[in-house]
Design goal:
By secondary structure, the chain is of the alpha/beta class. It is built from 13 helices and 24 strands. Bound molecules: shikimate-3-phosphate. The site of shikimate-3-phosphate has 11 residues, from helix 6.
């Protein structure tokens, strides 16, 4: 449990210790297994979710060496059947992408996770993988973890996904690399594209055109990764909202500026916040700083490019709660199957703060007002806990379960303490 004290004065700070990118870190652990040489990863995210992905790589035979500057992942000659279950903790990314990899590897694998992950839908990967010959089973007819996978030969495919999901797409790309011919994957709109960028960077034959991908099976192992993981824009966004709602200023350092990841900053800009994007380099991803300067906020309607801001919607809802007018989020049904039902979690908790809301099947409406102190239920969800902690800068806040913050952003509270007092009362 943490208690946030209302902000006493505006801030003007530079933050360069925000957690490294979770999506890219997971992929570093998993994709390094596709090479036959050691990968060197700087700034790997040291949080529960991504450490689990690393431990799974180890159970599959990789050697992991950590120094102060980097981690070195030396893949085994061939992935080995692990002697134990593979525990993905809270991470949907880990369980779904590993499913795609392991479906094409000879052996028996059991993937599982914590009580939240064990309640999240896995059919979205199990169905397309099974349709190309994978043997996958799980609770509730194969939809819920633990998932048991008997890896083996996979058929080439032409798959059209109904959801824009980078996790499903990544699982199918990895399956395609192990399949017996050329495959294509189509999604309704482009989801985050780290997998395509990184695998191409490693030498994979992947052709992309907007939301369609052609995957040519691997003939030889890929080149190893040599990468510095940028700052996670989804984590940095909490501090962007902090500046936006308190009319403060913050400089966020070394973020990925990948367009599929910074859409929420664009929405904040639409609401009246001044935002600058300073590109510094471009290797696997464009990387740079983002400067955020708060101003009066006006309501906004969000119904497009949802896949590009899905993780930031709870934090955006905090800006909506203090904006002038009624904001609306639509076409965001996927929020219901994240680490918690985020539509319910946002609406319930904003109501506790005295903010008027409406709940839709695929989103919500928020009428901006004067939020008041409340006791927040995080539903064990890191992004709900951090979002309401940020709203606490306006009115003070108590958040019940906050251990989940360790899954993605272990030094969040420490950074928040640069701005205001945080009482840690576990
Ligand atoms: C992720 C993809 C998104 C996102 C998740 C991370 C990834 O999920 O919500 O936090 O790293 O691929 P979906 O692909 O299921 O939309």
């Amino acid at each position: 449990m943490i208690k946030i004290k209302q902000l006493e004065q505006k801030f003007d700070i530079v933050i360069d210790e925000i957690a490294s990118d979770k999506s890219i870190s997971h992929r570093c652990a998993i994709f390094s297994l596709l090479s036959n040489k050691p990968s060197i990863i700087k700034n790997y995210l040291q949080a529960e979710d991504t450490l689990n992905s690393l431990q799974i790589a180890e159970l599959l035979g990789a050697k992991i060496e950590k120094t102060d500057e980097y981690i070195k992942i030396t893949p085994p000659k061939e992935l080995k059947e692990p002697f134990d279950i593979l525990d993905c903790g809270n991470s949907g990314t880990s369980i779904r992408i590993y499913s795609g990899l392991l479906a094409g590897i000879d052996g028996f694998f059991v993937l599982t996770g914590d009580k939240y992950l064990r309640n999240r839908p896995m059919k979205r990967v199990a169905t397309p993988l099974t349709s190309i010959g994978a043997k996958i089973d799980g609770r509730e007819n194969g939809n819920l973890a633990p998932l048991a996978i008997r890896g083996g030969k996979l058929e080439a495919f032409n798959y059209e996904s109904k959801i824009a999901s980078a996790q499903v797409k990544s699982a199918m790309i990895l399956a395609g690399l192990n399949a017996n011919g050329i495959s294509t994957y189509k999604e309704p709109s482009l989801s985050r594209d780290h997998t395509e960028r990184m695998l191409k960077g490693m030498g994979a034959e992947i052709e992309t055109e907007e939301n369609v991908i052609k995957i040519i099976p691997l003939k030889t192992p890929l080149n190893p990764l040599e990468i510095t993981v940028p700052t996670d824009p989804s984590s940095a966004f909490f501090f962007a909202v902090a500046a936006a709602i308190t009319k403060s200023r913050v400089v966020l350092k070394n973020l990925t500026l990948n367009p599929t990841r910074i859409e929420a900053f664009k929405i904040l800009e639409k609401m009246g916040t001044k935002i600058e994007y300073l590109l510094k380099e471009d290797k696997y991803e464009p990387i740079g700083d983002i400067v955020v300067e708060g101003n009066d906020l006006k309501a906004v309607e969000v119904s497009e490019n949802i896949a590009w801001l899905i993780d930031e919607i709870p934090a955006l809802a905090m800006a909506m709660a203090v904006a002038n007018g009624k904001s609306i989020v639509k076409n965001a049904k996927e929020l219901r199957v994240k680490e918690s039902d985020r539509i319910k979690a946002v609406v319930d908790n904003l109501n506790r703060c005295g903010i008027e809301t409406e709940e839709f099947e695929d989103g919500f409406a928020v009428r901006g007002g004067n939020p008041k102190f409340a006791k927040i239920e995080s539903f064990g969800d890191h992004r709900i806990a951090m979002s309401f902690a940020i709203l606490g800068l306006i009115c003070g806040m108590q958040i019940d379960e906050t251990n989940s913050i360790q899954t993605s952003f272990p030094n969040f509270v420490e950074l928040l303490e640069k701005i205001t007092e945080v009482e840690n009362a576990n």
